[in-house]
Amino acid sequence: MALLEVRDLDVRFAVRGGDLTALRGISFSLDKGERLGLVGESGAGKSVAAFSILNLIAKPGYIAGGQILFEGRDLAAMSERELRKIRGNRIAMIFQDPMMTLNPVLTIGTQMVEAILAHRKISKKEARAIALDRLQKVQIPSPGKRLDQYPHELSGGMRQRVIIAIALLLDPEIIVADEPTTALDVTIQAEIMDLLLDLCEQENVALMLITHDLGVVSQVTQRMLVMYSGRIIEQGPTREIINDAQHPYTQGLINALPQLGEPGARLFQIPGSMPSLKNVPTGCPFHPRCNFATEQCKHSMPDYVRSGNVDVACYEVANLIEQEKHMQEAES
Amino acid sequence: MTSPLVSIRGLEKRFDLSGSLLEQITFEGGRFRRKKEAVHAINGVDLEVQRGEALCVVGESGCGKSTIARTVMGLLSPSAGEIHYDGQRIDNLERKASLPYRRKMQMIFQNPYASLNPRMTIQQTLEEPIRFHHPDWSPIQVRDKIHEVMHSVGIDPDWGSRFGHEFSGGQRQRIAIARALAVDPEFIVADEPISALDVSIQAQVLNLLMDAQESRGLTYLFITHDLAVVEHFGTRVAVMYLGRVCELADTKTLFATPRHPYTQALLSAIPKLEDDRPNHIRLKGEVPTPVNLPSGCVFHGRCPYANERCRQEVPGLITTDGGNQVACHAVEEGRL
């Protein structure tokens, strides 16, 4: 059984003039110790997906359907009290901006001890020892001193290390990291990503990494999901998708990267931009920007088809697979 | 060699941190002392932008790349040093005398949500610079010009009566580019013009900037932290660290044979699609604050090759056999 299994998750936001559907039929699973990447552009619903795993969707958002099974128990149906035992304890979260996550008026030590005592009945002294140990694990210089410092005394990279230390405090099974390095500089970003990867491997923690950076995903994760307009359009092993993307959107996203283009030549560009949730196109949400769109794409939503180890939601890919099958049958 | 379009000579820029006189005075050891503190954003930068090229300035936050952009545009005045445009010194000009240069030099900012006036329609936004610089133009000429630039950036001229908030991020950046192009500039300073945009939109805007360069013969000073973009877009690259240029080279040369240890670390830190695992040069520590600059080479605290000379003496730019200009003692001495 997978550690975490999300089945047909629908998340909606109740606003004036009707509901907006932020997530439509999201299904994926995460095994113990596995690293999963969640890729998409702004508005694709990746953060909503991350937040809904911890059932952290705030009003007016709500989970309209589906299940989030963590070790077989449905988080979507749990009471707030039960959820609190899981949040921060079994499933930890790392957010994008370390300055927003840390309380500016409490010392690092106070915040870490508080998090431990919320879940475990141990003395403050023991909690402080755990906090110190985790700060050492994230390789912060002079960790003892940091416990008594305030967040503003640390640099951005160091704050993000503290956040990772806090996420590790209670030996979680899963870490959900929402753009953990986006606010950081390139060299610091590389160090933090290294650290996160090493720790997940050492402690056998599952990682769900939300990012818009395909380079990071390809270096860190084993499997990836590509989201577009609230839907997973492609999911499978990271290497396979990066090397041979099936969905036209994923292909476009990869080809739009300047590092793949011939220097000085025009970049591949996907026309238009992601639709807003208020007016999602009918059928496949990508069809207005897709070069392969047919009448069928405009009217009905494609189902997932399997190509290699990758699941893709695209009629064009489905047709290609059909054709291949016919060719093979004809040959034999 | 032809003369450069823009040349930056010995540029320095400090931002005073110490506040008013009363805030500067402290009582220490029985006597009053006056303490002054400043952020040393740029510490002696010489750069030349050749006609028709795209000179990229890269570096991490706090290295002074945006300060260079703003100083060149005259939005900040230099603490020391000179800015020359087409042979004429422009950083000390009177307001009136600087007007013709302001038309020739335009700027594109990072955040298209902040750089468009929310109370102006697109028409008004584009009209303002044209009317300001061409007061003698007839309304028809102005209108034609607006249509022309809107068309060239791929925004339907019929949308002129809409406001900025009705557009997406990518479209807003197109409008910001249209505003810069509206007065037919020769030189455009672009400060992180695509950093706030999504990947697929980044490609659109980058293509637009390259098209505009080709069709209008523009020269760019392009500020960015994204090295992949530089490799694609830049003619030459200047790598900055703590207010100094540590390496300057042709884009191809720099990416093929980076010489400065900082450039090497920076290039290795780009996450690449083909890698299965991160595989980069690890630097010690973090960028020091520009308030108290390290002595000697600004990079010595994090450099794996630093020796006593690096801690004492500031390295100057030297030209290597490969054509890179590098400010590094280790390269000069052949240790690296």
Automatic annotation (TrEMBL), chain A:
Signal peptide: none annotated. It is found in: Cell inner membrane. Keywords: ATP-binding, Cell membrane, Membrane, Nucleotide-binding, Transport. The keyword Nucleotide-binding applies. It holds the Pfam family ABC_tran. Coiled coil: none annotated. It is a peripheral membrane protein. Its EC number is 7.4.2.9. CDD domains: ABC_NikE_OppD_transporters. It comes from the Bacteria. GO terms for cellular component: plasma membrane. It catalyses: a dipeptide(out) + ATP + H2O = a dipeptide(in) + ADP + phosphate + H(+). Part of the ABC transporter DppABCDF involved in the uptake of various di/tripeptides. Is also involved in the uptake of phaseolotoxin, a toxic tripeptide inhibiting the enzyme ornithine carbamoyltransferase. Responsible for energy coupling to the transport system. PANTHER family: DIPEPTIDE TRANSPORT ATP-BINDING PROTEIN DPPD, OLIGOPEPTIDE TRANSPORT ATP-BINDING PROTEIN APPD. The complex is composed of two ATP-binding proteins (DppD and DppF), two transmembrane proteins (DppB and DppC) and a solute-binding protein (DppA1-A5). Five orthologous SBPs (DppA1-A5) are present in P.aeruginosa, which increases the substrate specificity of the DppBCDF transporter. Belongs to the ABC transporter superfamily. This is ABC-type dipeptide transporter. It comes from Marinobacter guineae. The lineage of its organism: Bacteria, Pseudomonadati, Pseudomonadota, Gammaproteobacteria, Pseudomonadales.
From TrEMBL, chain B:
It catalyses: a dipeptide(out) + ATP + H2O = a dipeptide(in) + ADP + phosphate + H(+). The complex is composed of two ATP-binding proteins (DppD and DppF), two transmembrane proteins (DppB and DppC) and a solute-binding protein (DppA1-A5). Five orthologous SBPs (DppA1-A5) are present in P.aeruginosa, which increases the substrate specificity of the DppBCDF transporter. Part of the ABC transporter DppABCDF involved in the uptake of various di/tripeptides. Is also involved in the uptake of phaseolotoxin, a toxic tripeptide inhibiting the enzyme ornithine carbamoyltransferase. Responsible for energy coupling to the transport system. Its EC number is 7.4.2.9. Residues 25-267 form the ABC transporter domain. GO terms for biological process: peptide transport; transmembrane transport. It comes from the Bacteria. It comes from Marinobacter guineae. Coiled coil: none annotated. GO terms for molecular function: ATP binding; ATP hydrolysis activity. Keywords: ATP-binding, Nucleotide-binding, Transport. NCBIfam families: oligo_HPY. Pfam families: ABC_tran (PF00005), oligo_HPY (PF08352). This is ABC-type dipeptide transporter. Belongs to the ABC transporter superfamily.
